[in-house]
Amino acid sequence: MRIKIILLITIVFSVVSLFLLSSSKEENHSKSVILIIGDGMGLPIISAYEYYKSEYQKNGFSNFEKFDGSFLVRTRSQDYVITDSAAAATAFATGKKVPNYQVGIIENGKRVPTIMDIAKEEGKSTGIVVECSLTHATPAAFYAFSKSRKDDQFIAQQLIYSNIDVAIGGGLKYFEPLLSNLQKQNYTIIKSEDELYQAIINKKNYEKLIAFTAPIHPPKYKERKIKLDRKVEYALKILEKNKNGFFLMVEASQIDWFAHDNKLMDEIDEMEDLDRLLGFIFNYKNSKKGNDILVLLLADHDCGGLTLVDYKAPYFTPEFKVNYSTTYHTAEHIVGFYSYNSLLKIKPIIDNTEIFQILCNYVKR
């Protein structure tokens, strides 16, 4: 009798172990990535926004502090010490250095696969949400190739071959000749921010979506009807239906634009939009306890050469004195942040091409 009981316990233990192993493998296969790029977001604007939020708005510090760790990233392109967004995004997307103003890369007559392509090969859904045209430098690097980032029409033509499941951003002007072909690929097309707003309010559920929020670029933060967090939330409703997980690239695009213009408060507004997004992302991540989601936030480069110089100010206000040293990008390292459910080892300083390898290693697990 005792032998039978021991045998029964052994069988039950073996079955449970196999089930747990199978579940573990399935869970690993469902790993997802949310890559967030703050275009032009150097350390100084992070500092300025934190002071502004905590001391002027009296609303505590930013959601940046919720990340598990941080690191520095070298940003140079193939041909210049100071990179542009196209070369920087291509380094993230492909792991390859390219000259400034080039998006994507061709080797042996073929486009080098991006991290989006690799995620798709792993059975994951893919998405892009940006506050610029979908043909702009950063999003383009994840699905297209062009020697010139300015060739919007040529870049737009390549989205149909990318098999991206969700794309939300501006640029309707460049895609209008392609809409019928995109619809034949089972994309639902939304042509305005108002139409997208109605889809969100009415909880429309699509399988594949391209939503245009502007003819070219969306307006700045305070003029946008739908903030970045709501757009990402809507994209995730579509992407998360895939049991194999997803890869979503989000760009807070206009931080960079107001750094070029040396407009501190507009830059801080765009940082507020990003901070709202981070608050949503961490709540979303915490609600998905069964899923493994890597959240990676970084800039592509610094812009403007901002310094905070008002040594006589007792508090940070919109009148705080600052200096901008340039209206273009700088060569400073940028800060990357990561949030991960278990230990993720990233060296203190890495090259921007190493971001691709970090993502690739994670997606392929």
Describe, in plain words, how this protein is organized in 3D.
This protein is an alpha/beta fold and 365 residues long. It has 13 helices and 14 strands. It has helices spanning 2-29, 43-56, 85-94, 115-121, 137-141, 152-156, 172-175, 179-184, 193-201, 228-239, 255-260, 264-287, 354-363; strands at residues 32-38, 69-74, 106-107, 110-111, 125-133, 166-170, 188-190, 209-212, 246-252, 293-298, 306-308, 322-324, 334-339, 349-351. It has a ten-stranded mixed beta sheet, sandwiched between helices. Strands 3-4 form a two-stranded antiparallel sheet. Helix 9 (193-201) links the parallel strand 7 (188-190) and strand 8 (209-212). Helix 2 (43-56) crosses helix 12 and helix 10 runs parallel beside helix 12. The protein is globular. Residues 2-28 have low confidence and may be disordered.
Q: Assign a percent range to the helix content.
A: 25-40%
Total count of helical runs of at least 4 residues: 13
Question: How many DSSP E strands?
Answer: 14
Query: Could you list the spans in which at least 5 consecutive residues all have pLDDT below 50?
Result: 2-28
Shape: globular
Q: Main β-sheet: number of strands, strand sense, barrel status?
A: 10 strands, mixed
> In sequence order, what are the helices and strands, one letter per element?
HEHEHEEHEHHEHHEHEHEHHEEEEEH
What class do helices, strands and sheet pairing give? alpha/beta
Oligomeric state as shown: single chain
**Cα separation of the termini:** 45 Å
Average pLDDT number: 92
Give the radius of gyration.
22 Å
Question: Which strand-content bin applies to the residues?
Answer: 15-25%
Strand order of the largest sheet: 7-8-6-5-9-1-10-13-2-14
